[in-house]
Amino acid sequence: MQWLSVCSLLVLLSVSAPSQAQNQICTIFTEIKEDGFKSLILVGLAQNLPDSTLGDMVPLIAEALAMGVKCCSDTPPEDCDRDVADLFQSAVCSSETLVEKNHLKMCCEKTAAERTHCFVDHKAKVEWATPPSEPGCYLGFFLLLLLALWGVDRINGSKKALLIHLTD
Description:
The chain has 168 residues and is an all-alpha fold. The chain folds into 2 domains: 23-127, Serum Albumin, Chain A, Domain 1; 129-168, no CATH class. It has 10 helices and no strands. It has helices at 2-22, 24-48, 54-71, 84-93, 96-101, 105-108, 112-125, 135-150, 152-155, 157-167. Helix 2 runs antiparallel to helix 3. The longest helix has 25 residues, at 24-48. 13% of the residues are buried. It comes from Hucho hucho. It is found in: Secreted. One of its GO terms (molecular function) is small molecule binding.
């Protein structure tokens, strides 16, 4: 009788484990919290979309944040079980502007594993510019990164003043 209980428990655990592991978005969102999630999305976008501006990425960051909240709700949508890379690529490919700016049309025409492979190849081919050696450039980059991480919605009027100061 004890073996039957142990076997039943193992079957129950093996059936319930995949549903928890499949919602990768909620796992990531709860582990690194909202600000860390925004930062992770920003870094991923910046690495994959080097020809885009922060303004181009803000809607995608907001969309990803909303998805993180939805995936951690009591009744997460079916999209939460999809592969994170596939969700990211679908979001990028849904924006014609981002696709054109970053030369991703060929990747977005592909599906599943082929599309992922194309995105990885595209990222590997990106030529990263060497930053200027002036100390002010590093400070400006740091402040812009701080603005992005802190949240564009919190800055409002002070953002314009800070950007004017950076360009002087």
